[in-house]
Amino acid sequence: MTIADIRKTTDAKMDQSLAAFQNNLTKIRTGRANPALLDSIHVDYYGSQVPLSQVANVALLDSRTISIQPWEKGMGAKIEKAIRESDLGLNPASMGDLIRVPMPPMSEERRKEMTKLVRNEGEAAKIATRNLRRDANEAVKKLVKDKAASEDDQKRAEAEIQKVTDRHIAEIDKMVAAKEAEIMAV
């Protein structure tokens, strides 16, 4: 493995870490309705737990209401029960075949809790990025130790890896700030 390979794989892994962080952010509740909020809910379907999206069509009715259209008639009650039992604090209402999930407005205290959660997720993403940087630097040091690269190459590679790390951490900070602004907007 060469220094260029190490840098490329580190960059790719950091991009994956960033994508995972962004995915986690979509699951954090803001004042607005978001169908991704219900991704973590699993419904009892003939004895097995399956994601809500596999038994119903989840969509937005308006900015504060999620609609759920079950694909089978008997699933409505099970879906409602699963949403009520989740820790999201949502109260679904059934209207014939359609289930409406209104988003209650968040209190100021709840908004602050959510921003803390966003910051914690951001810190975890930064730690993952820094761990990838450490692993890459160790791989470069091993190349130098095995005489596959010079010490000058090591210094250059570490500087490049640091630039990649800084870029990813700045992106994480930007995403955290945007999500916090979205949560605090009334």
Task: Tell me what the structure shows.
The protein is an alpha+beta fold and 186 residues long. The protein folds into two domains: 3-27 and 107-184, Ribosome-recycling factor (Topoisomerase I, Chain A, domain 4, Orthogonal Bundle), CATH 1.10.132; 35-102, Gyrase A, domain 2 (2-Layer Sandwich). The chain contains four helices and six strands, in the order H-E-E-E-E-H-E-E-H-H. The strands form two sheets. It has a four-stranded antiparallel sheet. It has a two-stranded antiparallel sheet with strand order 1-2. Strand 3 (56-62) and strand 4 form a beta hairpin. The longest helix has 38 residues, at 108-145. The radius of gyration is 22 Å and the shape is elongated. The mean pLDDT is 87.
What is the CATH superfamily of the largest domain? Ribosome-recycling factor
Any idea what the shape is? elongated
Poorly predicted runs of 5 or more residues:
none
Name the strands of the widest sheet in spatial order.
Answer: 3-4-6-5
Number of helices, where a helix is a run of at least 4 consecutive DSSP H or I residues: 4
The largest pleated sheet is described as: 4 strands, antiparallel
User: Overall pLDDT, averaged?
Assistant: 87
Radius of gyration: 22 Å
Strand runs, count: 6
CATH topology grouping of the largest domain: Topoisomerase I, Chain A, domain 4
* CATH-level-2 architecture of the largest domain: Orthogonal Bundle
CATH class of the largest domain: Mainly Alpha
Give the count of structural domains: 2
- SSE sequence, one letter per element: HEEEEHEEHH
Helix content: 55-70%
Classify the secondary structure makeup into a structural class. Answer: alpha+beta
**Percentage of residues in strands:** 15-25%
Quaternary class? single chain
